[in-house]
Amino acid sequence: MTRIAQKFEVTRGDLADKLIAALEGGEEAGGDARGRQSAALLVVRRNCGRAGYGDRYIDLRVEDHPNPIAELKRLLLLHRIYSLIDEGEEKFAKGDLESSLAVLIKAASPNPNVDDVYVDLGVVYLRLGKKQEAINAFKKALQLNPKMRNLIKQLPKFGWMELSQEIFREIGI
């Protein structure tokens, strides 16, 4: 328990970072006698659930995994990226394009392999009149996940972007 408490206390970051560090401290001190198999993280914050619903700010679980704490850390990173994407989309919906762009760029930085963020970046760049940046973002999304082609084709129907055959040709749709 001493190692768990030490890791919690010395770790910089938010509660989630501290709790994962405490789990790592437990592992370093010998871990569970039954071995490694699962890990979970629950952080509750009033009215901070996804999209403002509920109080479950972070609720992640890893079951039957050879390295559950490392996997939990990976899932926490993805959770944070998707929280930023949600924030960027919210700012976009309110018409705050510059703030939306800044948040989405931040979302892309910790893991540049999340295709969703590049679709959103493409849309925001288009609205800002930055056509080449939009094309590059859409191409990156398609490079990461060719199935995003179907989503991008639907964006004009949802009102997220103007129908542009030129843009679609440029990105190979």
The rounded distance between the terminal residues' Cα atoms is 56 Å
What is the 3D shape?
elongated
How would a crystallographer describe the biggest sheet? 2 strands, antiparallel
Q: How many distinct helices?
A: 8
SSE class:
mainly alpha
Strand order of the largest sheet: 1-2
- Rg estimate, integer Å: 20 Å
Beta fraction of the residues? Answer: 5-15%
Describe the structure.
By secondary structure, the chain is mainly alpha-helical. The chain has eight helices and two strands. The protein has a two-stranded antiparallel sheet. Helix 2 runs antiparallel to helix 3 (68-93), helix 4 (97-108) packs antiparallel against helix 5 and helix 5 runs antiparallel to helix 6. The longest helix is centred in the middle third of the chain and has 26 residues, at 68-93. It is elongated. The mean pLDDT is 91.
